Amino acid sequence: MRVSRTQAAENRQTVINVASRLFRERGFDGIGLKDLMKGAGLTQGAFYKQFASKEDLAVEASRRALESASGRWSDAAAAHPDDPLGAVIGFYLSGDHRGEKMDGCPIVALGSDAARQGPDVKAEFEEGIKAHLDVLGRFIAGNDCEASRGKAMGILATMVGAVTLSRVVNDPDLAQALLDAAAEQVRDAAAA
To answer: Residue ranges of the DNA-binding region (predicted)?
Structure first.
């Protein structure tokens, strides 16, 4: 059955969206094309009409996940203009975000996987990290751009590390303590 160009474009976007979520849940190598396409409601044969390879899809899905994550930060900040960093800390370093395996931070979910991928996937993560740093930089802007950039890097590293650690422990009290400690450190770093 032939598919219209419009439908093919919609199918491609559906596959990218589904892959963005499933890769975050299972990792790049944790799901095969058959299951990925099934999750998108399509056949495996349709995959090669849309993408050159699984790596091609990984690049697109990474971009989508990182843009979504950066957008969530901007949305949280816009909803609380009086304390944009506090708004980001509030959702990012929360138990709810800790549990968001499919929709949570792709840097946390896929960071170690991305480090083992090709340069195109790494380039998407680099751009996504820069976008997060830009958002943080707007929250903590000071007179010294280099110092503000360094502070943003430390804050992002602390937040990503805290969510990562909170996800790898079984004890929910320890997980929450890690998130709370990071929130305190980030607020102190931003105020310094």
So the answer is: 32-51
Q: pLDDT per residue over 27-83, tens digit each?
A: 999 999 999 999 999 988 888 888 999 999 999 999 999 999 998 998 999 999 999
CATH number at residue 80: 1.10.357.10
Which residues lie closer than 8 Å to 116 by C-beta, 6 or more apart? Answer: none
Cα–Cα dist 71/69, whole Å = 5
Amino acid at 117: Q
Q: Would you say residue 80 lies in a domain?
A: yes
- Reference 163, options 151, 180, 139, 140; nearest CA is 180
- Tokens 């690049």 belong to 59
The answer to whether 173 and 157 are in contact (CB under 8 A) is: no
The model's pTM: 0.89
The boundaries of the domain holding residue 119 are 55-191
Q: Is residue 115 domain-resident?
A: yes
Whole-number CA gyration radius for the chain: 18
Is there a contact between 112 and 26 (Cβ–Cβ < 8 Å)?
no
- Number of domains observed in the structure of the chain: 1
